[in-house]
Structures are given as C-alpha cells and as structure tokens.
C-alpha cells in the first residue's frame, strides 16, 4: 500500500512541472497566478500523502490545511492587487 502512495506522490511531482512551467512562462499575470495556485494545491495533496507514508496523517493534515489557507489568501491578495493595477489581463502595469 505504501508503494501506491509513493508512486502517486511521484506522479503528482511530475505533473506539477506543468504548473511550474505555467507559473514561470505564463503569457499573462492571470496565467501565472493560476499556475502558482495549482502548484500550491498539488503541494497540499503531497503533504497529506507524506503524512500517510510516515503514519502521521493527523499532523500533516493540520500542516496542509494551514498551507492551503495561506495559498488561498495569497492568490486572492495578488489577484486583487493586479486587478486594481489593471495588469491582470495582460495590460501593461505602467500607467500612461
């Protein structure tokens, strides 16, 4: 059973490379924010899988919930900031 969770964690790590690519190369700021949010979600799942592998699910669920809440608040704050700066949909951040 542990090998299943180990292979699942490895698959999530490989899939998270796509989110990392979108977060780095994304053509707009909105794509980058979505990439970072997806990467944070995959990290939350990985933390729970690590908890299952170590046999300490209760501790890792608390850590992953705190991380998910922090990720959610960060994405909301950055989306609100770039929306107010009119740079969310690919417009220039420099005001004319």
How does this model look, in words?
The chain is built from 3 helices and no strands. Helix 1 runs antiparallel to helix 2 (29-54). The protein is mainly alpha-helical and 96 residues long. The protein has one domain (2-84): Orthogonal Bundle (Helix Hairpins). It is 81% helix and 0% strand. The chain has helices spanning 2-25, 29-54, 57-84. The model has no long low-confidence stretch (mean pLDDT 87).
Quick summary of this structure?
This protein has helices at residues 2-25, 29-54, 57-84. It is mainly α and 96 residues long.
Question: How many extended strands?
Answer: 0
Helical content stands at over 70%
CATH architecture: Orthogonal Bundle
Classification by helices and strands: mainly alpha
Determine the N-to-C terminus distance: 60 Å
Name the beta content range: under 5%
CATH topology grouping:
Helix Hairpins
Radius of gyration: 16 Å
> Helical segment tally?
3
Largest sheet: none
What's the CATH class label? Mainly Alpha
Mean pLDDT across every amino acid position: 87
Count of the domains: 1
**Global geometry:** elongated
Provide the low-confidence segments as ranges.
none
Query: Element order, helices and strands?
Result: HHH
